[in-house]
């Protein structure tokens, strides 16, 4: 008599046979067996690096195929291992250790992926502070995301605020999010003020607009503003990033999981992270919570043998260069 472990093994083999190693990795990571998560992290990292090389032509077709085959073999070996669990009605969830047990000191702890994944907890506080300056933009034509880039200036995607007419009828809403107790916070709205400042470029898809403050409202400066990073070396392929966004025009959220740069080409940054309509205009943040790009939309990059699907944003260094002397932000 067999149980579900055979089915799990067969599912992994089936995905691998279809050339869907990325899906096989995701599936394997969900299984409650020893080392499944570690395997998933390691293979996901290898696959991401491979796609970077493929997109930028830094590996030959044969080198790419060889690495794909090695990743597939690792998955098939894992499938063979979990198939041996046949006969167990439930996964081994608890292991009892002897009361007296010693380990060699050098094996007590281990970095599984990279020491760069370790952060001081203060890093989380910095992320919360950065999130305060990110807002939902409500226009007559839809909703998007924006952020405070400087005193009384909001930056977003060009297609969110495409012209002065739309901007003049739009508002920026801050604090629209869940609080620590899971309750919806009261949003604070400010009118977009294109008469104070307005600059857009449909080709690069960015807009920088003024904001109108009211005497009885919370000062816009209380939300702070995002620091901007113009250093391209800080956003090379594989670099970690984050997007804080109003996905679907809803409550403020942050995408967690696999978030990293795929590549940089011309004026644009390509990356893997989850977004939805309404995320347009969100700041793409480096691992220090500094804005490096404005999120635009899903896109693709052509590699040697396949198309790499990714999200795309306009680099803020490109925006600054395009605006020239009109650039109003101190960096």
Question: Brief overview, please?
Answer:
With 331 residues, the chain is α+β, with helices and mostly antiparallel strands.
Structural write-up:
The protein is an alpha+beta fold and 331 residues long. It has 2 domains: 4-86; 120-331, Thrombin, subunit H. The chain is built from 7 helices and 13 strands. It has helices at residues 4-17, 21-29, 36-56, 61-83, 122-132, 164-168, 316-323; strands at 134-139, 142-150, 153-157, 171-174, 188-201, 206-212, 242-245, 253-254, 260-265, 268-272, 283-285, 291-302, 307-315.
Q: How are strands sequenced across the largest beta sheet?
A: 8-7-11-12-13-10-9
Structural class: alpha+beta
Radius of gyration, in Å, reads 24 Å
DSSP summary: helix tally: 7
User: Uncertain regions: pLDDT < 50 for 5+ in a row?
Assistant: 86-99, 110-115
**Do you know the CATH architecture of the largest domain?**
Beta Barrel
CATH class of the largest domain: Mainly Beta
For the record, give the distance between the C-alpha atoms at the N and C termini, rounded to a whole number.
67 Å
Strand content: 25-35%
How much helical structure, as a percent, in the residues?
Answer: 25-40%
Task: Kindly give the count of domains.
Answer: 2
Rounded mean pLDDT score: 80
Q: Could you describe the largest sheet, including whether it forms a barrel?
A: 7 strands, antiparallel
**CATH topology group of the largest domain:** Thrombin, subunit H
Secondary-structure element string:
HHHHHEEEHEEEEEEEEEEH
The beta-strand count equals: 13
Shape: elongated
